[in-house]
Design a protein that fits this description.
Chain lengths: 407, 287
Amino acid sequence: MLSKAADRSPPASLPGTAANPRPVPAVRLDGVVKRFGAATALEETWLRVEQGEFLTLLGPSGCGKTTLLNLMAGFLEADAGEIFIGGDLVTSTPAYEREIGIVFQNYALFPHMSVAKNVGYGLRMRGVPRREIAERVDAALALVKLSGFSDRSPRQLSGGQQQRVALARALVIRPKVLLLDEPFSALDKNLRGAMQVELKEIQRRLGVTTVFVTHDQSEALSLSDRIVVMSAGRVRQTGTPDEVYRHPQDRFVAGFIGDVNLLPASLLARAGERATVAIRDLRRDVEAATLRGCAVGEEVDVFVRPDHLAVRQAGEAGTLPARVAALVYQGSHIDLHADLAEGGRVVVRMPGQGALATYAPGTPVGLVVPQGGLAAFPARDAAPSPLPQGPPDSRPSSLPPEPGSTR
Amino acid sequence: MRSAIRRRPFLALFVTPAVLVAAAVVAALAAILRYSLHAYLPGSLDIGGFTLDNLADLGRPIVLRALRDTVLICFETALITLLVGYPVAYALVRTRSVVLKSVILVVAVTPLFLGEVVRTYAWTVVLGHAGFVNATLRQLGLIERPIQLMFTEFGVIVALVHVTLPVMVVMLAAALAHIDRDYERAAQSLGAGPVRAFLTVTLPLSMPGVVAGFTTAFAWTFSAFATPQVIGGGKVSVVSTLVYQLGLSSFNFPVAASLSLAGLVLALGTMWLVRRATRPLEALGGH
């Protein structure tokens, strides 16, 4: 009801008008909280999704991303806070009046309806004339390259085709927001890549605001305009893929996005926005923002990407002493696992295959730590935010977040 | 084929009990068939020579009425059980409250643990002239004289619904539990309110359970004896009570046997028709 009223008065919601210097976001969450019994599934969350944006909610299972999606969809009711869609307050609007398109993880195509009936369902519920339904269903099926599949049963379709139907069904109602709940998790790897490209193309062509939920950080990095990294019911960081990858604001984000190594260090000095840390006898410059609450002299953890490290001869000046533990051939690159002299293991990602012959296991080497691209956080004992895996006493250690994430 | 059987060395052992049971059933049916085709000797439990007169007896109005009433009572009972059982099963599957779930389950399923006879006598207490229903209505001042509930078709159907309800609820609950909640959510996200989402998605998808529950309730009611006998009290005549009357009151075994066979044929025929009519519905829910 609310939303229909707003449709009739578009000037108020036009972006960039004098009355609204900041465009109306497609979705806005103001201090939304969701609890299940005593457990808080989503702590107070503030979020803006801009018009036409592709926003990804990224985090491990149980981080609250699906709860957040269900709150936007209207399947759950917030315990506190307000939700706006297209400028309209929808906090207590039921799902069927929110005009949102959803693609479910298992697609949820109605098994008792043909492909065309599935796609046309939302239009029938809106009382769209039959002829227009037929036209719009045809157009939607053409968009997802499934023209000619109208009369098939969903059961006769492959996983990828079912997903296209689900996408067409969600888009045909011209939703204000498209919600995607881990839509690629049921597809095999090759198909997944192709579908991602296609989804991104369709999303850009239609300019539909999209909120995408995934636990796959590579999927998030490659598709999103912005990523919201979540863990334990909290938003840890919001930013472009480059921002969250290069400038993690939180040790959870640093560990979850991409592969990362952890080097033990101590805080030497702090000056304005920069701080100096010492990794053994190497001095490095890092952002100070992530070291809040950490006093000079205290232990810190320095995060460095495997591809930012390099290997040199042992004893070379300005390197960290280590010993080669294993070499793992990965096709396009080689992962060299090395044990640091002071304990802990790191991974160095090296292009080319020369390394296989050069660094036999057991060889002492020196690791080159880059000047930039480092992030430092208070040592784990001091930091409240937990890392996804690894017992606390294993620090420092390399942190390949997930087996599948090694690219 | 032979080699396939040899690969299951205990097959003969396992099949033996089934064969024995089947043999007993076939023997009983054969005996009934034999009785139905022989003459009734009044005053004797023996039977006379071969005759088709018993089958002609089935054409008598009292028998035809019993056959018709049986089908009607079965149909009405199955339908009412379905209408009462569906909401109960839906609540059972969908409620998040563990307490409510347990209460529904206990209330819906405990009747199964009481025999049909016990339940039927319980209903005589409820439906009688001084029974619970009449006493309550009288105290509320809604009626002056007790309503006739015992010895009516209505009373019989009420008691029969109680008998078939647990099975219906269990079968519907199983069907509903298999329907992914995301179907309903998808329908809602596409603009269907709760009622339309239920009618266009959940209900069609639960059709296999509806058909299975309906046919089971129907067949169960067809064979019910204690309930129509006690609650009907001779005023409601169905196949099972008429067979009992003919066989054990008049000792007319041959006609009783013919009527049994007629009932069996009618039951199988109706079930076949119900199945046929509901096949398109059942295809709806195939997951």
